[in-house]
Structure formats: structure tokens, C-alpha cells
Write a structure and sequence with these properties.
Strand 9 and strand 10 form a beta hairpin. This protein has a six-stranded mixed β-sheet, sandwiched between helices. A four-stranded parallel β-sheet has the order 2-1-6-7, sandwiched between helices. The protein is built from eleven helices and 13 strands. Helix 5 packs antiparallel against helix 6. The chain folds into two domains: 118 residues, Rossmann fold; 131 residues, Hypothetical Protein Tm841, Chain: A,domain 3. It is an alpha/beta fold.
């Protein structure tokens, strides 16, 4: 089996505690989070809980700086001396610069160590699920090309939806227009968001938390088989919304585990510190079944 290493940026989020300790072949290059003029390394200087607490009191959304070309070059250079190839998985190129910087850093290694740079078209738990899919592909696929093909297939099976209590960060990040933000605040309407084609987009609005929960449950039940799923929340303990979602989904998917996790600072910088989300990886179907 070839020695393949995985690289990702700290936008990737894992629901399983100590995930990275279990898989030393995964290297995370931290984003830098700029809050009130001070810079923090995500996952190094700031845990998800610390990050949410820090930015919750800020009027302005923090600025997220993806790892630079030089930082990725240093990581690729170190790993390439001891491995047969690298799979580098990045936050959506439509949201952050990680993919672009990773691609530029990988070019000088061509002919020396193959580096497959992959746009997850997602972030946070969706990106983390793709890292897990990469680990699975390393175990199951014979060549790097086959691994990359399997991972790119998984990209198309990851779906994310979010419900946010406030609209300030959404307006600052141009996910919502100023007029929509004012109207939402006046009427008490909450935005319902989805990651589509790598972009965080407003898809509809709801008036209550119960309606948001109902919409999330409807979203998940559109899928027959779930390979992976996580409920993202803004609290370290299980929130009321997460509990409602978990209870409802356990009825529709008996035997399926629905873990909850605190979302990361890079996602909070986009949608705020008071959101709830559901991210799923749809189970791969056997196309041959369609012929019978």
C-alpha cells in the first residue's frame, strides 16, 4: 500500500473528539483569524469554543486568512520527503483562498511527489467528511488516481444547510443584501442557508426556530441513505434546536447515529455565532442497480 499523506486547512471540522490524534497521516495547516486587530491560529491559539466566545461580542465579522502558498509549500516539502503522494483537501475556493494557495504551492513538486489538490466545495464538517472519505479511499483504492477519483465523487454527495438567528455577519459577508437584512430584523425572519456549488447562499427564510428545525428535518429526509451526518451548533452542550433535530431524525432513520458538534471559527466568521446546521454525506449508490 502506498504511503499517502493528507493535508487540509483548519476550516475542516471533525465531530469525533481527538480525530486528528487517531490519524497522524492527516496534517492540518491553520487559518489565521483576525479579530479586533489581533491574529489567532485556528485550532492552535483558538479552539472552536474559544473562537465562538471571542467573536460573539464583536460588532464586525472576523477576517479569515487561509494558509499562504509559503505555508503549504513548507508542509508539502516536509511530507514529500517521506511519502509516495499527498492528497490536499481545501475549503471551497468560492469562499476562501486555501485551494488557490495549495494549487500554487503544489506546482513545484510536479515530477517529484504527486500532490492532488482538491476543492471540497464545502467547509467545516463537510470538508471534514471529505477528509474521512480520503482516509477510506487510501484503504480501499490501489492507486493515487483511483483515490482522487473516489474523493471527487464524494464531493458531489456532501450537502449542508444552516439556520442563523442573526443576520449581521451574513450582511457583512454579502451573503444577504442590506435591504434583506433590514427586513429580516424588522419582521423577525430568520435566514435559512445552504452551500451550493461551493457558495454559501440564502435559500429561504423562516419565522421561528420550530420552522427552521422542521425545514432541516425535511431536508435530511429527502435522502434515503446517509453515510455520515452531523448536527452543528453554537453551544458546547446540546442546544434545544439540536435536540429537536436529533429526536425527529431518529424516528425517520432508526438506528442511525446523529452526533452534534460545535462548529468552527472559520464558519462562524461567515454566518455568526448563533447558528445551527446539518451536514450530510449521502451514501454512494451502485449505478449497476439501475440496470436491473
Amino acid at each position: 500500500m502506498p504511503n499517502i499523506q493528507i493535508v487540509t486547512d483548519s476550516c475542516a471540522h471533525f465531530a469525533t473528539p481527538h480525530f486528528l490524534h487517531q490519524y497522524p497521516m492527516v496534517t492540518v495547516v491553520p487559518n489565521k483569524i483576525n479579530v479586533a486587530g489581533k491574529s489567532y491560529r485556528e485550532g492552535v491559539d483558538l479552539s472552536p469554543e474559544e473562537g465562538l466566545r471571542l467573536i460573539a461580542s464583536q460588532q464586525y465579522a472576523p477576517i479569515v486568512h487561509s494558509p499562504t502558498v509559503a505555508e503549504f509549500t513548507e508542509v508539502y516539502g516536509h511530507l514529500s520527503r517521506h511519502c509516495d503522494g499527498i492528497i490536499s483537501i481545501h475549503a471551497s475556493r468560492e469562499i476562501y483562498n486555501s485551494y488557490t494557495n495549495g494549487l500554487a504551492a503544489a506546482r513545484p513538486f510536479a515530477g517529484n511527489c504527486p500532490i492532488a489538490v482538491i476543492d471540497s466545495q464545502n467547509l467545516c464538517a463537510g470538508q471534514g467528511m471529505l477528509v474521512k472519505a480520503a482516509l477510506k479511499s487510501i484503504q480501499q483504492e490501489p492507486t493515487l488516481d483511483d483515490m482522487v477519483r473516489a474523493i471527487r465523487g464524494a464531493v458531489e454527495r456532501i450537502y449542508s444547510v444552516y439556520y442563523a438567528e442573526s443576520v449581521s455577519y451574513l450582511q457583512q459577508n454579502k451573503i444577504m443584501s442590506a435591504s434583506h437584512s433590514v427586513l429580516s430584523n424588522m419582521l423577525g425572519i430568520k435566514p435559512f442557508l445552504s452551500v451550493e456549488h461551493g457558495r454559501m447562499q440564502l435559500v429561504e427564510k423562516v419565522r421561528t426556530r420550530s420552522q427552521a428545525v422542521e425545514r432541516m428535518v425535511e431536508f435530511v429526509t429527502e435522502f434515503a441513505d446517509l453515510e455520515d451526518v452531523v448536527i452543528l451548533q453554537h453551544k458546547s452542550y446540546m442546544s434545544e434546536q439540536a435536540r429537536m433535530i436529533q429526536d425527529r431524525l431518529s424516528v425517520d432513520f432508526p438506528g442511525q447515529f446523529f452526533p452534534h458538534a460545535l462548529y468552527g471559527t472559520s464558519l462562524a466568521a461567515l454566518i455568526g455565532t448563533d447558528a445551527t446546521g446539518v451536514v450530510i454525506l449521502e451514501k454512494e449508490t451502485d449505478d449497476l442497480d439501475d440496470d436491473f
